[in-house]
Write a structure and sequence with these properties.
ATP binding; disordered C terminus; helicase; about 280 residues; Helicase_ATP-bd; alpha/beta; 11 helices; elongated; Rossmann fold; 2 domains
Amino acid sequence: EPVASQARLDVVTTLAQLGFVDAAVSTASTFLTDPKQKAKRKELDEEVADICKTFRSKLSVACRSSPHFQLEHMGHLLPRPPPKTKDPRISTFTPDEWQRRLLDAVDDRASVLVCAPTSSGKTFISHYCMDKVMGDAKNKDGVVVFVAPTKALINQIAAQVYGAFHSAFGIYTDAYRHRALTCRILITVPECFESLLMSPANATWAQKIRYVILDEIHCISSREEGSLWEHILHLLPCPFIALSATVGRPESFVKWLQGIKDAQKSDEEAAGGGGEGTCEVP
């Protein structure tokens, strides 16, 4: 019996350590079901509760259930049926529902926060946004600005944009400047973009900006660069797409972003203009 009890506790401990706290409790409830063993059952329940409490506090993410744990840590291993309905706006693949919502948001010129893991399909919306602005017959000189925090990302994005749009792009960093104010798609770092927006000499150019894509928006929490990203958000003359794979508490962040957009909308309405909406795509 002591050996069997220890083996059972090992099972419960392993389940709790992996994050399956509810499964650990459920498994423990199947032990010592004999009414004559109430004392042992109570002792086991207390030990299981301590085990679960210990490992729950050690988990980086509070696992509310076994399905939650699986989705959080094993999503890439779970079977995923492909979408059945194609979207005429995308010819290269069939978008998921959340990606359709992204397309709708860009069509409506809304601001969007996209929180999704790396390689989950965020890049396509940037290209769709660029293509949308490039093909706008009413604004043939409209500009899309792509802001990335590092030069390494700038080089990567520049290669992708060149492959898709060829000579329509420009680059502006502290070390290199190419067609910054004459291109249709500008790829830049936050410092340079802020300087462009702050310069009165660039006021006419800023009015041409139709969309801004902010990659790695979680950098706004950085002690060194956070104020820079925040300042850019306040200066934006158009809707934006904010991308990140690691934003914590996105709901709170969206409320904060919405506050900025609401303030801008009030200013625009007071000046006789119109504002843009904001939506969240989880």
